[in-house]
Amino acid sequence: MLEPKNNDELPPIPGKRYFTIGEVSELCNVKPHVLRYWEQEFPQLKPVKRRGNRRYYQRQDVIIIRQIRSLLYDQGFTIGGARNKLQGEEARSDLTQSQQIIRQVRLELEEILRILRR
Hints:
This protein is mainly alpha-helical. The protein has four helices and three strands, in the order E-H-H-E-E-H-H.
């Protein structure tokens, strides 16, 4: 298992669109078999699978993997606890996005109402 202090020493994520499992393994300091296991445990992890069932991770996947790694290795969460924490953050994010959409629609409707009143 990795020491908590190693999380600060992770390399920066390059500006690429897709990463192989080997590249993600190096970027996140986690072995490939652990990444494959985490895919089964965390529904947020959905790498693109191409020819030959090869996995290609996107930048957002790498960020989520680093969050999972931090929760498990640095903060001492169990797999279930980390899954619940990530799902809670996802739900809050969805709520915030919904609120922003509602505000935008309301502003647009108010603008239409002003135009109709002229």
